[in-house]
Design a protein that fits this description.
Blueprint: E1 2-7, H1 12-23, E2 27-32, H2 36-46, E3 50-53, H3 62-65, E4 70-74, E5 80-81, H4 85-91, E6 96-103, E7 113-120, H5 126-151, E8 162-163, H6 169-172, H7 181-190, E9 197-201, E10 204-214, E11 224-228, E12 231-235, E13 240-248, E14 253-255, H8 256-259, E15 285-290, E16 293-298, H9 307-320, E17 327-332, E18 336-338, H10 343-348, H11 352-372, E19 377-382, E20 385-387, H12 389-395, E21 399-403, E22 407-409, H13 424-443, E23 447-448, H14 449-454, E24 460-462, H15 467-480, H16 484-501, H17 504-520, H18 525-535
Parallel strand pairs: 1-2, 1-3, 3-4, 5-8, 16-17, 17-19, 18-20, 19-21, 20-22, 21-24
Antiparallel strand pairs: 4-6, 6-7, 9-10, 10-13, 11-12, 12-13, 13-14, 15-16, 22-23
Helix pairs in contact: 1-5, 4-7, 9-11, 11-12, 11-17
The structure holds coenzyme A (COA).
Length: about 550
């Protein structure tokens, strides 16, 4: 089939559908939903058999749905209608929710249903539910709908429905003097990613994101009690909550303590060491140990790793390497493993060039520490996605295990032609060959977990269910294996031989020469791209590598 993905942006769900449909032999192209005229142009060029809309912010016009089969992914159960489906379900504390693929018609979300699924709804951030449960269900529903369309013997049914309006800030408002912690947490979770909850901190208006429960600390309701690294703690009537990120009026999303320098005056509520705290609290790096395996979880918001986070993770890793264990697992966070340097923090810096430079050097220091670790076998276990430098930081480990369903973007060029570092010039060709590395870097396309293993970039794709525990079991098998010592010896020998052939320092210097041009040179593409990425500027065109129908030599089959 010729399938046009019509989407507001090429988000993780759109990426996943793109890759899954292509791997099933469909011809897939992408057009961003910019204007009706642009979509019409795409339709005239591509002549799709199907328009699939994974993520839209406005309705498809009648002029299009009346001529083409248009299937829309709605993040709600059958019969649910409206633009804030997931927000209402999370805020209302529903115990299950779902995804429906329906045909576009005049009334939004009211068309005949082609596929639908339900799932248990976790008490978690909306962005996390979207990237996990919603995406998994949407991919299965999207693929089922395509199969049904192809088979030609399926009649989609209409279901009676109920429309829920757009959730407004008035619906999200928090009363810190009265509301219990659970209700506030549900509101913050329901707004996470976008739009956040409009509130105030230090007497100034802002939107709150990235809430974490706190089990032990208490204070006067509404009062900001203290800070830990980049988060602030705020008391409720029956407990307290950490706020990790905020967006001040007219600004972009930042770690709370960076957005509000007033936080410097707060008491520091630091945790001792790296061990995972026994009770819920804000802890972005947490170490656990069992059966000779040390595991580092690092739940950095959105997978972005600022200079300070790289430094702290490096310290935590170096400490883990002093433990009487044999394997260290770098498990990242549940939604992302790493998306590379922290573009928002860089954008906020007085000199974005200098901060970019500091950040990439800190990333490289971390990658180098992992690469040079000769006391332990190391495993990067990706439960969430990775992008750009994050993909190569993972490859610095001896083994990389990826959860089935995770999307990877092992390339840099989408960020204003960034050259990239993190020793990718050492790590990538060694896995996929020089031509393979060039193709990955230039195609700038997302890759599924299965594909990454098929081409040899990563080592194993593990089932989604029970991934986090499965990783620790698999790592303890490595510890028990009779050849563990030989593996460690082989690892040291290989590092020594590679170092003799070309020192890590040489790779680093060469990559950083290119990065210096990106950061400080006359071509400002990286700075412009970063600005638009951070500002979430709307797209004004679809990149050519996605809109294949706009290639000059694109031909539809007769
Ligand atoms: N720095 C800061 N924020 C980042 C980030 C980074 N490196 N990577 C992702 N984010 C943020 C996004 O701004 C977005 O923020 P939101 O909370 O306002 O929604 C959130 O993470 C999710 O990103 P999104 O692009 O919506 O997720 P996705 O799953 O659709 O796409 C990527 C994932 C990796 C393809 C995409 O986020 C990306 O291209 N990131 C930049 C990678 C990069 O160039 N890093 C720098 C070079 S090392």
């Amino acid at each position: 089939m010729r399938i046009l993905l019509l989407t507001h942006s090429f988000n993780s769900l759109a990426q996943r559908l793109f890759a899954e449909l292509r791997s099933r032999g469909h011809s897939v192209s992408v057009e961003f939903d910019i204007s009706d005229a642009v979509t019409e142009e795409a339709l005239a060029l591509f002549k799709p058999n199907l328009i699939l809309a994974p993520f839209l912010k406005r309705a498809i016009p009648e002029s299009i749905w009346s001529r083409y089969t248009c299937l829309v992914v709605h993040p709600g159960v059958q019969g649910d209608r409206g633009p804030s489906a997931l927000d209402w379900a999370i805020q209302n504390g529903n115990s299950n929710w779902g995804v429906t693929v329906l045909q576009a018609e005049a009334e939004m979300d009211a068309g005949p249903v082609w596929a639908s699924e339900t799932f248990d709804l976790r008490a978690a951030k909306k962005s996390s539910v979207y990237r996990n449960e919603v995406t998994e269900a949407a991919v299965r529903c999207g693929l089922a709908a395509v199969e049904r369309l192809l088979a030609g013997n399926f009649t989609p049914q209409r279901v009676p429905g109920q429309a829920h309006g757009l959730m407004m800030q008035a619906d999200r408002a928090i009363d810190w003097q009265r509301e219990p912690t659970g209700s506030i947490l549900a509101k913050l979770h329901a707004a996470d990613g976008f739009p956040g909850v409009a509130d105030t901190l230090f007497g100034e208006p802002c939107h709150l994101f990235d809430a974490w429960p706190e089990a032990a600390l208490r204070g006067t309701p509404g009062e900001v009690l203290g800070r830990r690294e980049t988060a602030v703690l705020r008391a409720t009537v029956d407990g307290a909550l950490w706020i990790g990120h905020v967006k001040r009026a007219g600004a972009f999303k930042l770690p709370a303590t960076l957005a509000f320098p007033q936080a410097d005056a707060l008491p520091e509520l630091l945790l001792e060491g790296w061990w995972k705290a026994p009770e819920p609290t804000w802890q972005d790096i947490a170490y656990t140990e069992s059966d000779g395996v040390g595991t580092l979880d690092f739940a950095f918001y959105n997978g972005a790793m600022a200079t300070g986070q790289c430094l702290r993770l490096r310290l935590a890793f170096a400490w883990a390497a002093t433990r009487p264990t044999r394997v260290i697992v770098l498990r990242g966070g549940t939604d992302f493993w790493s998306n590379g340097i922290h573009l928002n923090v860089i954008e906020a810096a007085s000199s974005p060039s200098d901060e970019s430079w500091a950040n990439i050097n800190a990333m490289n220091d971390l990658a180098e520490t992992v690469l040079r670790c000769d006391t332990h076998l190391t495993v990067a276990a990706l439960q969430g996605g990775a992008g750009a430098g994050g993909c190569f930081l993972a490859r610095a480990a001896d083994q990389v295990w990826v959860r089935d369903g995770v999307m990877l973007n092992p390339h840099y060029k989408n960020m204003g032609n960034l050259y990239g570092s993190e020793f990718w010039t050492y790590l990538l060709p060694a896995r996929v060959g020089a031509a393979g590395a060039r193709a990955i870097m230039q195609s700038r396309l997302p890759m599924t977990a299965q594909e990454s293993v098929r081409i040899g970039l990563y080592d194993a794709c593990l089932p989604s269910a029970g991934f986090a525990d499965g990783v620790v079991r698999r790592a303890s098998d490595l510890v028990q294996a009779p050849d563990l010592t030989e593996r460690l010896v082989a690892k040291r020998d290989k590092r020594r031989a590679d170092e003799a052939a070309k020192p890590l320092d040489a790779y680093r210097t060469e990559e950083l020469q290119e990065m210096q041009r990106n950061f400080y040179g006359f071509d400002a593409s990286y700075h412009v791209a970063r600005y638009h990425f951070v500002a979430r500027s709307p797209h004004s065109w679809t990149p050519r590598h996605l809109a294949v129908h706009r290639d000059l030599d694109w031909k539809t089959s007769p």
